[in-house]
């Protein structure tokens, strides 16, 4: 089977902590990621909460949700895999965050093998569009927070531990 790769890069004047905070605030993604992502929420928090390894996030629009599991997360980014739908035989995503003077460089990479070989080119094109769009929106939201002095504020508001 053919492995496909998608890469996107962006820069933000915001610091890396602000980028991580936005990534961790999955419940808030739909506030800045529309129209690419309409509904988002943590289904399960990881350790440490909320976005540590084992966390499961649900993104999309009913009935077409994608469930992603966080594999690793630190101050330099996160890695994740898609657990449903079973469109992929293998899927590995990574968001790398690198301090740059001034601000932060953000790289989002995806490698996948489609379950159905014929779907590969379509999925590749769709993911190129979605990943590049999400990254642009993430960088723009971080820029907005930077410009308004919101950087450093915790974007994530805990409403209690989810199951």
UniProtKB/TrEMBL annotation:
<dbReference type="InterPro" id="IPR019587">
    <property type="entry name" value="Polyketide_cyclase/dehydratase"/>
</dbReference>
<dbReference type="Pfam" id="PF10604">
    <property type="entry name" value="Polyketide_cyc2"/>
</dbReference>
<protein>
    <recommendedName>
        <fullName>Polyketide cyclase</fullName>
    </recommendedName>
</protein>
<dbReference type="InterPro" id="IPR023393">
    <property type="entry name" value="START-like_dom_sf"/>
</dbReference>
């Amino acid at each position: 089977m053919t492995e496909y790769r998608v890469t996107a890069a962006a820069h933000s004047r915001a610091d890396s902590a602000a980028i991580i905070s936005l990534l961790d605030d999955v419940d808030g993604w739909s506030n800045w990621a529309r129209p690419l992502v309409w509904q988002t929420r943590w289904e399960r928090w990881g350790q440490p909460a909320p976005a540590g390894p084992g966390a499961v996030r649900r993104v999309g629009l009913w009935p077409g949700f994608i469930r992603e599991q966080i594999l690793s997360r630190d101050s330099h980014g996160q890695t994740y895999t898609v657990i449903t739908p079973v469109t992929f035989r293998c899927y590995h995503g990574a968001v790398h965050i690198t301090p740059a003077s001034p601000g932060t460089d953000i790289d989002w990479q995806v490698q996948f093998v489609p379950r159905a070989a014929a779907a590969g080119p379509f999925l590749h094109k769709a993911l190129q569009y979605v990943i590049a769009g999400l990254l642009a929106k993430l960088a723009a939201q971080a820029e907005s927070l930077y410009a308004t002095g919101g950087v450093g504020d915790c974007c994530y508001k805990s409403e209690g531990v989810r199951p």
